[in-house]
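Intended use. Records like the one below are meant for learning the mapping from a protein sequence to its folded structure. Do not use them to infer anything beyond what is encoded.
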Amino acid sequence: MKKIELEVVALSHSITQTHSYAVVLGEVNGLRRLPIVIGGFEAQAIAVALEKMNPSRPLTHDLMKNFMTAFSIDLHEIIISDLQEGIFFSKLVCSSDHDTIEIDSRTSDAIALAVRFGCPIYTYENILSNAGIVMDEKNQATAAESVEAIGATVTESADDDLKSMSVEELNKLLNEVLESEDYMRAIAIRDELNSRKSQ
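Structure written out for the chain above:
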């Protein structure tokens, strides 16, 4: 089967499932999007790697990467290989000096590792045609709009709270959330601080 390459285009709170997030993968050089509901821990792990943040202690996926690197195991690619009753199944394609093997993985964990290793993410045509969303070429939706199209959106009340805070208060809050290792909130605070610097 021909593999189709995907890239992470959005990560957002899901309004369809409590305490869940949606990661939206986009077809490279294409118009289709593949939305996948993931847990908060995995969303945070993906966000930390995408934002190139350095946690004070390694997260589980950082530990996994460090372990693989220490034993000369390379992650070449991940493949979202199956879809059953709305659940995605994935494989990690890994190699050592002696062998190349495929390891079963939850899709959220596979994506978290892919962004750390900088390796490609693939799926198959049947999965993309069954679960994907096609964007209109004339009016390509932004990543945020594609998330909204699947019933998942960024919660705005938390962002509104940040807008009402002073720069001093934001910096203090940023230190607090980093201390408690709430990296999703830290990203939102950092984005608010950056938007004020650019004004």
